[in-house]
Write a structure and sequence with these properties.
Pfam families: Acetyltransf_1. Keywords: Acyltransferase, Transferase. One of its GO terms (molecular function) is acyltransferase activity, transferring groups other than amino-acyl groups. The chain has a 7-stranded mixed sheet, sandwiched between helices. The chain has one domain: Gcn5-related N-acetyltransferase (GNAT) (Aminopeptidase), CATH 3.40.630. The radius of gyration is 15 Å and the shape is globular. The protein has 5 helices and 7 strands, in the order βααβββαβαβαβ. The chain is of the alpha+beta class.
Length: 174
């Protein structure tokens, strides 16, 4: 381990709180360069739909990463810049966003967030997790067990709001 890098055990994962939003929005703007950042209202709608599954990774009072996850039907994805509401009847999760501050990349934060997410989903007997891979992240997610999944007209319409090359992937948990 690099001597200046903090140990991962020193960095807690916790639910998002209202004061985290400026840091979350800054990380989003730094990480998603191929698409326009979503508005604060849209981002917060994901959090309001499922506040316990939306978390930040914090170290010494600074938010270094965030994950927005909410219930959603398998084989579908919300269009970008779409506010969502309660989807409590969905038996899957949708990983809308996992972003790590460029200053904190390479510290294993993504692995720890992903492990946390999967453990939470299994504890709650969530059937699986869907996502839309953007900016060339398809290989990253496939290495974690995600596979291409069923498509529908509705999903194709949603994917049209994402940059070219975006694809829907799914990780079965049950």
């Amino acid at each position: 381990m690099h001597p200046k890098m903090p140990r991962l055990t020193d960095m807690p994962i916790r639910p998002i709180n209202p004061t985290d939003w400026p840091a979350i929005m800054a990380i989003q703007a730094q990480c998603y360069v191929e698409l326009a950042p979503e508005s604060l209202g849209v981002m917060q709608s994901k959090w309001r739909a499922s506040p316990t599954s939306c978390v930040v990774f914090e170290h010494q009072g600074s938010v270094l990463a965030y994950t927005l996850v909410h219930p959603w039907p398998r084989g579908d994805a919300p269009s970008l810049e779409t506010e969502i509401s309660d989807q409590s009847n969905a038996n899957c999760w949708y990983l809308h966003d996992m972003a790590i501050s460029p200053s904190a990349q390479g510290m294993g934060i993504g692995k720890q967030l992903f492990t946390y997410l999967v453990e939470q989903a299994k504890t709650l007997t969530v059937n699986g997790i869907g996502l839309v891979a953007v900016q060339g992240a398809q290989t990253y997610w496939q290495q974690r067990g995600f596979k291409t999944d069923i498509t529908s007209v509705k999903l194709t319409e949603s994917l049209n709001s994402y940059p070219d090359g975006a694809c829907y992937l799914y990780l079965a948990l049950s």
